[in-house]
Specification:
alpha+beta; Archease, Possible Chaperone, Chain: A, domain 1; six-stranded antiparallel sheet; 2 helices; 9 strands
Length: 141
């Protein structure tokens, strides 16, 4: 289990064939950032910290679970195509869209490969009493 300073984090869950993580945070932006760290931990990337990259992108999603899958899919695409691992995010959430400014570093190698972010049992929900946003997502490896 990995906890971050803002009460967000992730942990890997048992899964028969693929890799699955549970994520949490005090808000949706923190949950998405924690999910990115969880996904990247599966790949175990080697990075070049001397190279910083910034990328803006827009995600369209009808609900928070779709946003989680779309966000991680975009990061996975950027990892594969641009060899970039994003580690800092700014979000602007609107009606059915999320604008993201992501910054990160170049990747020079991966220990493992993720083929896709799946829809298998994906969820994002807010706990009514604590207000913590929790979710889970599965990766095809």
């Amino acid at each position: 289990m990995v906890r971050d300073g803002d009460d967000s984090g992730y942990r890997e869950l048992d899964h028969t064939a693929d890799r699955r993580i549970e994520v949490w945070g005090p808000d949706l932006a923190s949950l998405l950032a924690a999910a990115s760290r969880g996904m990247y931990s599966i790949c175990d990337p080697e990075t070049d910290p001397s190279t910083r990259v910034t990328k803006d992108f827009r995600l369209e999603a009808s609900d928070r679970a779709t946003l989680l899958v779309e966000f991680l899919s975009e990061l996975l695409y950027r990892l594969e195509v641009d060899s970039t691992l994003f580690d800092a995010f700014e979000f602007d959430f609107g009606d059915g869209v999320a604008d993201c400014r992501a910054s990160g570093v170049r990747v020079v190698g991966l220990s493992d490969e993720i083929k896709a972010v799946t829809w298998e049992d994906v969820f994002v929900e807010e706990e009514p009493q604590s207000g913590v946003v929790r979710g889970a997502v599965t990766f095809d490896i």
